[in-house]
Write a structure and sequence with these properties.
The chain contains 8 helices and no strands. The protein is mostly helical. Helix 3 packs across helix 7 and helix 5 packs across helix 7.
């Protein structure tokens, strides 16, 4: 059994430890006082057109989408399109999420999914999501359609875009045939001869 002197030593040591820790805590707060922001969170500013990106004329010319689609892979496209699944559904009859569903997007009129609230910029764009239009849009959505609410920065590599477009083409009851590079070659050749 502990006598009162031993008990007092144990209680004194415990109390001394707590007082010491409390003194260190108070000193640390005085030395390292954090500055609390007026508004919680981080302010991230993303410029609409960053100055660091090269201008379109400074970039090397990309091959036509028809040529890229000739070497496209549906499997690679499906893997690359995985990043789209956080905002879009892919299945037939799928729901609209942050963005409209992508079933049947290739060949579909722009801003035509019933029940989806498109941005005024996309509504004003009009036209059809052709292979070429999708290629331009997926390269830089905000650059191609200024004012779009789509926050995705785009797919920089042309072949990766072609893979994604080829995959999106398969999401249809009647997928459109891939255009051949030969279909656009005569127009390009004729333009060269005429110039």
């Amino acid at each position: 059994m502990l006598d009162s002197f031993e008990l007092n030593k144990i209680l004194g040591a415990t109390l001394g430890t707590f007082l010491g820790l409390h003194a260190v805590h108070l000193a640390a707060e005085a030395i390292f006082a954090p500055v609390m922001p007026a508004k919680p969170g981080f302010d991230i500013k993303v410029p609409e057109n960053p100055a660091t990106q090269p201008s379109p004329e400074a970039r090397p010319a990309e091959p036509p989408i028809e040529q890229l689609l000739a070497n496209a892979s549906v499997e690679r496209g499906e893997m690359s399109a995985g990043v789209c699944k956080s905002c879009h559904s892919f299945e037939k009859g799928g729901p609209n999420l942050v963005g409209p569903h992508l079933w049947g997007v290739v060949g579909r009129p722009v801003a035509s999914v019933p029940g989806f609230n498109y941005s005024p910029a996309i509504k004003a764009k009009g036209g059809t999501w052709t292979f070429d239009e999708l290629n331009k849009f997926l390269a830089n959505p905000r650059g191609y359609v200024p004012g779009t609410l789509m926050t995705f920065s785009g797919i920089e590599r042309p072949q990766q875009r072609a893979d994604v477009i080829d995959y999106l083409r398969t999401l249809s009851d009647n997928p459109l045939p891939l255009p051949s590079a030969a279909e656009t070659a005569p127009a390009t050749t004729g333009a060269r001869q005429g110039g």
